[in-house]
Amino acid sequence: MEDEPVAERFQCCIIGSSDGIFSRTAAQLAAAGVHVIAAYGKQISNKLQLAVHETVRLPIDWKSLGGTAVGDVGEEQRSA
Length: 80
Known about the structure:
The protein has 80 residues and is an alpha/beta fold. Helix content is 29%, strand content 18%.
């Protein structure tokens, strides 16, 4: 990551991990003006959570958000 100009190329970066090993990189990107998001499963490192702007817990429960997941077939389509 240190050899890549990520902050120059991107406005947003999503880290698909909950591991604190990414906290330093996340903090550096955030300090450079990149909006950093961590997508995680059951738990997330405290260091990573503090380093990023947002966290997203996976899997996302789309139904509770009022949306439908890709491939989700409604009742009317199932009975056809």
